[in-house]
Amino acid sequence: MKKLLLMFFFIGHIVMADELPDLGSYTDNIITAVEEDKISKQILYEVNQSSSVIHDVEIEDYLATLGNSLLVKTSIANRHIEFFILNDSTINAFAMLGGVVGVHTGLFLAANSESELAGVLAHEISHITQKHLPRIIASQQRDSYKTALGMALAILVSRSNPQLAGGAMQAVSASAVQNTLDFTRGHEQEADREGIKLLDRAGFDVRGPINFFRTMQNASQFSDGAAPAFLRTHPITSDRISDIEDRIKEYPYKQRVDSDNFYYVKGKLRAFLEEKTSIINLLKENIKNKTFINESGEHFALAYAYYRNNQINEAGQELDFLIKSKPNNPMLINLEATLLIKKGSLQEATDLYLKGLLMFPTYRAFVYGLADHYISVKYNSMAIDLLQKYLLLYPKDPNLYELMAKAYANLGKILLQHENLAEAFYYRYNLREAISLMDLAVRSRDGNFYEKSRVEARLKELQREEMLFKKSLN
Ligand SMILES: [Zn+2]
Q1: What is the pTM of this model?
Q2: For residue 20, how far is its CA from the centre of ligand 1 (angstroms)?
């Protein structure tokens, strides 16, 4: 029955894809905030399980900062939106039910300016502020949260790559998934218009989206005429382009200087995604012939490519070149500390991380790097002190808990090790694994009275959450 309902949904949507949405009939309570939160957790669980998701705190934080600089200028400024990057060379991005926005590495690398990338994010965020996904689901018959969840995951699959929604896709038939769940033309136009207003409010160049369309058109010429995936899931018609062009005429020309980190993040992605020696050769050629959009970005990519290829001295030379002109960039400091550790200059690396944290007290890459370094040289208590301090600032950061678990493991503190590992799984949305680890913490033979009662209470809390989740599926 569920499958049939879903099939009906897919077919139904395609038939009515060209109709403008009836905005008046939409009511907020079709999917409740609680349901959307559960869907969000399920999607983020799948995302966290996927090996194609990029886990690099500097890259993740860059995207989240850029996304949040737009989000704060919307009507949903207080809502949490989760941004993530998927290792996929196709040019695509997508917004999900539950406030999740994914960007492919291919799109990130194709964007020639920060305003182009921000333009895509503003468009996706606008799909969320305008509640387009709940509207798609609301326009269909739906009798339970499970059906909505199935739809949400089907949308995840159709908008992104199929590996993303592994086990939870069982309920949805394969043939149904193959059909794309495109937004309607009305949705696209609304997201374009709202996106442009949002770009302007956040101080970006409103020409970003038009420039990015051109970038995509160029990209499709180079890839055997295959349209980038973004064009498939957000079809661009000539109507849409002329509508955008009309609208941006209203705005005065605004020159916006891209941040160094935009080019550095792109550089880091290139250095790690491409084949090691060929990217080194390509970057050297580009620098020699001055064929680049941003010179610093090219040197930064080369520094990381050398680092990856264990050419530490060469990496250092590239980095020195960059530091000379702008010494206080956190991404440069982080790479410098990484190189110092690789060279065995441990004290210098520690000093540099500490200096970095004084300048940029919330920069998580320094915290991870320093804690990891403390743990590797057996300064476990120092690692724990540092991590505890940062857990006050980032209480939902799974990486901090994971590092904490490592330090406690070194000290032979079993209860605390399992407790922290359980929290790491919990904040990666893996409730089942969190419960079994918290159970191990409860059953460990060490730990004082206070610690024992804390993990017992937390286990009960996690079990209650699981029970409520299971209940909502029926
Ligand atoms: Zn769209």
Answers
A1: 0.86
A2: 14
